[in-house]
Amino acid sequence: MGFVLCRKTMTRVMLLLIVTMTWFVAGDAGGTKPEERLFNIEKLEMFVDKLPHIPTLHGFHIVNGVLKPKSLQIGMFFKKWKFHRDLPATPVFAYGVSKHKATVPGPTIEAVYGVSTYVTWRNHLPSPHILPWDPTISPAIAKRGGIPTVVHLHGGIHEPSSDGNADSWFTAGFKETGTKWTKPTYHYVNKQQPGNMWYHDHAAGLTRVNLLAGLLGAYILRHSSVETPLKLPTGREFDRPLIVFDRSFRKDGSIYMNATGNNPTIHPQWQPEYFGDAIVVNGKAWPRLTVRRRKYRFRIINASNARFFGFFFSNGLDFIVIGSDSAYQAKPVSTKSVLLAPSEIVDVVVDFSKSTSKTAILANNAPYPYPSGDPVTDENSKVMKFIIKHKSETDTSSIPTKLVQYPHADVSKSVRTRYIAMFEYVSSADEPTHLYINGLPYNAPVTETPKIGTSEVWEVINLTEDNHPLHIHLGLFKVLEQTALVETEKFTDCMTEKNDAVKCQISKYARGNKTAVTAHERGWKNVFKMMPGHVTKILVRFSYVHSNESYSFDATQEPGYVYHCHVNIGSRRQYDDETFCDGQVIRFFRKMDGDTYGYHSHPLALQQDGRVTEARKLLDEFEKGSIPSLLTYNTLISGMCEKGELTEAGPLWDDMVERKCKPNAFTFNVLIEGLCKMGNVKEGKEEDGVKIVSMAVKSGKVDRECWELFLRKFAGELDKGEGNDLDSRDLVAHSFIKGWLGFDLLQVVRQIFSGPVVTVKVFEDNGLIRQFLEEKRVLVEGANDVQYSEATPWFKLIVNGCIRDVDEINGCDIGVRALASHPIKASKKGLGEQ
């Protein structure tokens, strides 16, 4: 499944995801223009609010002088928050031990190396959401109300069930939970290197809005025996987190998120990124901090959805970088500026005794979107103000020449090289529709299956126009080099066709100018900026980097881990936003008798090389006790379907059933994709389609786009006068219905639209009714061709669905008028009831 399939997906997105504003739980309503509702940010005076001290929660007990594990109860609450002295209080979602104590950002959790912290995250959020969210991208949706949430500790190294998987969401009181939810209490083992992390919401399709609403906070892991000898600035006054993000506000103080898409013909609310007008630090817009003439430590977290920050001081002060993301540097690095992508962390020391001025503005010069967007304005070019006291004082803290030394990262010992390609799909209007990693959607079979204790080289190929901060859960990495691509368009065309960097001769194109990795980013990281038009080579380590020891927990358990881009889209998000990139899952395999892992990887390699028959034979060679997994079957079935050999996939299905290996959405998707390649369905092959459709409907595991592809392809072949290449032309909505009715398959149409997988929605009802019932044909003609008892229930489905649309001139009106004027109305009992 490669980039070509993604282009089909783009076509489906453009044609079918046209929905009305009623689909969004919250958002802009009425005819008022957005600029008339926005608070004029220029009216807010900067630097009037003091920088808040974020509350601290200790993730440990001290009993008789001994550190002990501690359990915390942290809730998510709806409340109002003052972002600025002159701005009305803002409705937010906030973390805290109680509603009264909840803050934006949430409390900073301080943990100690080797002492476990247990956190029960409790959702107290009421419906509806305070921001617009988009149900067309498969988000977490609670059927009984409530707002789905789940917490990810960004940079944390812990068991999969505590990682905050996007499908591990839950609502208030755990009334509803996602498919991957396992337990209410997360276990953070705190056995990784000391450093900085942050926690934030991670719910499928809702990360961007839950983050914007305020669900984020800092997490610091301390290790006294490592850090005390460094004599860095310490204490509540001199060691402070700075959590920076951007927000826009309405006149009533509420957070403004534009609910009008850049190109409504594609989708009424989709926008590439969210950029706020005001810069917020620790919950206050443009705060001020009075400092002494001495050294301060600032742990700076970029918690913005999409904004990069190019930090510098207006008076020329240096940043002494001592850490990046969740790890210390080997030695301090002095720099005049720091570029921080969304979700990145930089740990710095600033020596205000070296200032020649009484004040210093922490400023920003990063274009938005980065790197080729608009220049900064007066409002978003300023972050906060430091007022420097005149009196000098004794400073006992220091900046050592060396910091923390980790075991050497040896590239020669990496066990393999992987190629990770990012490709963005755009509409004819040059608006982005989706971005896949390696041409695969989130629910595709796992392709990254590293072994615990190993290192791998990943070459990340960014074929987009934007800089993408890539975040890897669990594993840390070092950036080795960044190389510009030459003849990018030619290479992109090859990748679009083959989705294989090796077959496209990546070495032939990755020979442009090399960009040196900045000195303060050469340590271990969990996020890095993937430059557009470049190949970024990283060394990923799947063990503790401070000791090279294996993890203290079982990392092979479900649901695995993900890696993804960390730009959270303004009005939509492809599953795991967490972002613009469709996240991919990393899963570790246990060592089994007969080396099952080898049997999984070998069929995949053979299938990718076109040797599907040889791959199929490997099933017979599996040793006793080494049972083929769903990945094995999906790989083989995909290969058969890719070759158009759907009949060969049948025995594989039977073998799966016999071994009690349950198919997932990908299994059905590739079967249906294979069916679409069968050729002329009129030659008696439609029963294969009906069988697959029936199985898939009963399983409830096939996604919406899959159905649409199948129906269009299948019906296009049935409908006389319609070409088979349906992805290269505009498609009228009635073509598949007309084709199916012509073959007495109305029952299958009804099954699809009334089944648990594809439910009747307002926008499908109206789209169908407007485009073919208005012509007074197709469905009505179908009723003449099949038993009327078969047609009547489907009419009811449509009409019942239409009633949910409150638009005055809607598809239901058109449909009723069309049916009422048709001559069969009087002669067919029951039609008048519709």
UniProtKB/TrEMBL annotation:
Regarding the membrane, this protein is recorded as:
Peripheral membrane protein
Q: Name one GO cellular component term.
A: endoplasmic reticulum membrane
Q: Which domain of life is it from?
A: Eukaryota
Coiled-coil annotation reads none
Transmembrane ranges, per UniProt, are none
* InterPro entries with a match to the protein in the record: Cu-oxidase_2nd (IPR001117), Cu-oxidase_C (IPR011706), Cupredoxin (IPR008972), LPR1/LPR2 (IPR052152), PPR_rpt (IPR002885), RraA/RraA-like (IPR005493), RraA/RraA-like_sf (IPR036704), TPR-like_helical_dom_sf (IPR011990)
CDD domains given in the database record = CuRO_1_BOD_CotA_like (cd13844), CuRO_2_CotA_like (cd13868)
Which intervals hold domain Plastocyanin-like? 276-364, 427-568
> Which terms under GO biological process does the entry name?
cellular response to phosphate starvation; meristem maintenance
Query: May I ask which residue range the UniProt record assigns to the signal sequence?
Result: 1-29
Q: According to the record, where are the PPR repeats?
A: 629-663
Query: By its UniProt entry, which SUPFAM superfamilies does this protein fall under?
Result: Cupredoxins, RraA-like
Q: Which PROSITE patterns match?
A: PPR
Q: Which family does it belong to?
A: Belongs to the multicopper oxidase family.
- The name under which this protein is listed is Uncharacterized protein
Q: Which organism is it from?
A: Brassica cretica
